[in-house]
Design brief:
The structure is a homodimer. Chain A is mainly alpha-helical. Chain A folds into 2 domains: about 60 residues, Arc Repressor Mutant, subunit A; about 140 residues, Tetracycline Repressor, domain 2 (Orthogonal Bundle), CATH 1.10.357. Chain A is about 65% helix and about 0% strand. Chain A has 9 helices and no strands. In chain A, helix 1 packs across helix 2 and helix 7 packs across helix 8. The relative contact order of chain A is 0.10. The interface between A and B is large, with 44 and 43 residues. The structure holds a DNA duplex.
Chain lengths: ~210, ~210
DNA sequence: GTCTATACAGAGATAGAC
DNA sequence: GTCTATCTCTGTATAGAC
């Protein structure tokens, strides 16, 4: 999105907003036009049809922070940070659920997940697989360095990722009803503390002596 | 649903199927009628309108296994089973994602979660809160009995619940594309093993002596 | 690039015969 | 209780003037 004040960009934003709120199918071109302040027919000067808007939304998901938990850094550079890295990732999830732009994208993704095969492919490969794979490399390296106990790195990656995703979903859901998200928000940090405490190498008690 | 072969029940099933597949809004009365083998207009002899079918689906969610993880048993009767109880619950989640009826309900729930406020209330109170509350009582009792280490029972409940939900979502999503669910399916048991291992009271090593 | 007007298809719902 | 026919509304999309 280059010109954030161009009409095309306004249409895109309005559409994304509405898709996330009520779903692609339930959103009408008239509504989109209304929110932009133009006639419905004028949209067709910028997008071939309704589906073309949807396509652009899905395409833009890829460059979103929603997806790039590791911000293009490699596990090798990161794993030495230990618990701080996990805290950072956990915080990314939290920020995503509170940032207006990314939470809309997340809500859109969950809305349309079962309606759009292309989106499912994207979710699977870019959101789930890519991040879990990177996470499992991180854990593998941590094991080698004897920072954490040896187990299945892929399992650890899933076990770390899953609650973050779930809590994110909780927050976005609660926000949809304007309910308080305070309790849910604390779970991001608690999860990381709990998780790290359980996987880190315990000092062989002093009592061993 | 009393008469599984009555027309009303056929309509209900066809509608639920379609709602779960393509969403409520995208499902047409004509499609429902076609799948039942009657004219679209005949549906109105059994349901006031399209929304009435939706209402009935949401109502029936309450009695589904999807929700009643504890099968109406109380934490007090159950907690002594220890790890076996967690295995049982984990297995419930797994079964739900593979049973044709419940996986449709789950998919429907995820489809419409952000479109239907009543469904969100239901999800929050009956699916999430109720089960997490029961789980946290279970963990609390386990702590009292010194089966597991003392921490925040509510955190434990969330940490146990969240991955099960996530893996369930993974399976239902993979099934939507006819992809293999084998790898994801193993995570239910691995999660429980991992989780129990981390929370159970460790034998104070022989080495203490 | 936006407007008005309009075409066209598909949706939910009702009426009345059988 | 189901059918055919039809009404009405809403939605996407196009044409053509400005």
């Amino acid at each position: 999105m280059k010109k954030p004040n161009g009409t095309k960009e306004k249409i895109y934003s309005a559409a994304l907003q509405l898709f996330a709120q009520k779903g692609y199918k339930a959103t009408t071109m008239r509504e989109i036009g209304k929110q932009v302040g133009i006639q419905q027919s004028a949209i067709y000067n910028h997008f071939k049809n309704k589906e073309a808007i949807l396509d652009e939304v899905i395409e833009n998901l890829a460059s979103s922070h929603l997806i790039n938990l590791f911000e293009n850094k490699e596990p090798k550079e990161l794993y030495k940070k230990g618990k701080a890295l996990l805290k950072h990732i956990s915080n990314m999830f939290k920020l995503i659920s509170y940032n207006t732009e990314t939470d809309t994208l997340f809500r859109f993704m969950m809305q349309e997940l079962f309606n759009n095969e292309r989106l499912r492919v994207f979710y699977n490969e870019e959101f789930y697989q890519k991040n879990v794979k990177k996470l499992s490399i991180v854990f593998f390296l941590m094991m080698q360095d004897e920072m954490i106990e040896a187990t299945d790195p892929l399992l650890l990656a899933n076990e770390f990722f899953a609650p973050l995703f779930f809590y994110q979903l909780q927050i976005v859901r609660l926000k949809a009803d304007n309910k308080s998200t305070a309790a849910a928000a604390t779970l991001f940090e608690k999860h990381t503390d709990f998780f790290w405490d359980k996987i880190k190498i315990k000092e062989k008690n002093n009592s061993l002596f």
